[in-house]
Write a structure and sequence with these properties.
By secondary structure, this protein is α/β, with parallel strands linked by helices. It has one domain. Helix content is 28%, strand content 18%. β4, α2 and β5 form a beta-alpha-beta unit. The protein is globular and about 50 Å long. The model has no long low-confidence stretch (mean pLDDT 85).
Length: 139
């Protein structure tokens, strides 16, 4: 498997960057705009390459790339469904982007990050359908 990490840079404050893992072979070698991942450490994994390579997450429940706060599954082929299912068991928030109909790597990257952030904020949006940021009083 091929992978790379795009550190989003440190933000002011006591928190750590959001850890996002994107499983998408189209992005591993692509030229990507790192400015769209500010405040996030984004790791991109190709998933298993070919039939002779296996995914450790599927086989033993552990990914050698470590934990992630958000996972976007954008794989194709025989390993796509098992890897996505493995992340659903191992991670908190998983976005299934296997059916994304977009060939441009830059557009896929922006889509995947947007889908991840959207999934992160979905519980808040469900609790506050009127929208807008929370007030200082917490309402």
């Amino acid at each position: 498997m091929l992978h790379r990490t795009l550190p989003g840079g440190r933000q002011e404050g006591p928190w750590r960057p959001l850890r996002v893992l994107i499983e998408d072979p189209r992005l591993v070698d692509a030229q990507l705009d790192r400015t769209v991942c500010a405040g996030m450490d984004v790791t991109i994994c190709s998933g298993p390459v070919g039939t002779r390579e296996a995914c450790p997450l599927v086989l033993d429940g552990s990914c050698p790339l470590g934990e992630a706060d958000l996972v976007v599954c954008g794989l194709d082929g025989d390993w796509a469904a098992p890897v996505c299912a493995g992340w659903r068991e191992a991670a908190g928030i998983v976005v299934d982007a296997r059916d994304l109909d977009e060939d441009d790597p830059a557009a896929r990257f922006v889509h995947h990050l947007g889908a991840a952030i959207g999934a992160l904020h979905a519980p808040y949006a469900e609790q506050h359908p009127e929208g807008g940021p929370p007030s200082a009083s917490g309402r």
